[in-house]
Write a structure and sequence with these properties.
The protein is α/β, with parallel strands linked by helices and about 180 residues long. Helix 1 crosses helix 2. About 30% of the residues are buried. The model has no long low-confidence stretch (mean pLDDT about 95). The structure holds guanosine-5'-monophosphate.
């Protein structure tokens, strides 16, 4: 799989260090609370599993699965919920855990959808963010890394369901997806 990469952007150690920082911050911000981490399937699974183990307050977890229309490397913002949350989030503190924000359209949809359930608070935690690609003004509360506008894979992120199990984040060669 590594031969398909232009370069490794974030290695394992670098990612873990950053996640520890995020976990510490979340633990401080949610002192005496039990936030519900809502993981967006499938890309954020690896991030969730590492992040939750760096958080020292009790947490609950749940999952949402979204399908996005459009081609495989560009979000259309037209999304459909394939799997909804199972836990009741009314009056609960909720943190959406996402792998990457590109245009921001997917998260904007999810945020507005969850907001309708009247949680006590709703925040966003993303491992990666591509600020240049945003098409919408979105408040990201916890961000691991801001990256350039390139297509990345690994650490849960896929291209056509491949590369998710790479332990690091790499930039995929253009010829693989064009
Ligand atoms: P957005 O709606 O913000 O444009 O797109 C968000 C979703 O598109 C992410 O959850 C992810 O599934 C996918 N995505 C956006 N950029 C990338 C990328 O660089 N690599 C991969 N593998 N997926 C991406």
């Amino acid at each position: 799989m590594e031969k398909d990469l232009k370069k490794i952007l974030l290695d394992e150690k670098t990612i873990q260090k950053k996640i520890e920082k995020l976990g510490k911050q979340i633990s401080q911000d949610y002192k005496d609370k039990t936030p519900i981490l809502v993981c967006i399937l499938r890309g954020a699974v690896v991030f969730l599993s590492d992040l939750m183990r760096t958080i020292s307050v009790p947490v609950k977890i749940d999952f949402m699965s979204i399908s996005s229309y459009g081609n495989s490397t560009q979000s259309s913002g037209v999304v459909k919920i394939r799997k909804d949350i199972d836990v009741d989030i009314v009056n609960q503190d909720v943190i959406i855990v996402e792998d990457i924000v590109d245009t921001g359209l997917t998260l904007d949809y999810i945020f507005k959808y969850l907001q309708k359930h009247n949680p006590a608070s709703l925040k966003i935690c993303t491992l990666l963010d591509k600020p240049e690609a945003h098409k919408i003004d979105l408040k990201l509360d916890y961000v691991g890394y801001e990256i350039e506008n390139e297509f990345v894979v690994g650490y849960g992120l896929d291209f056509a369901e491949k590369y998710r199990n790479l332990p690091y984040v790499g930039i995929l060669k253009k010829e693989i997806y064009t």
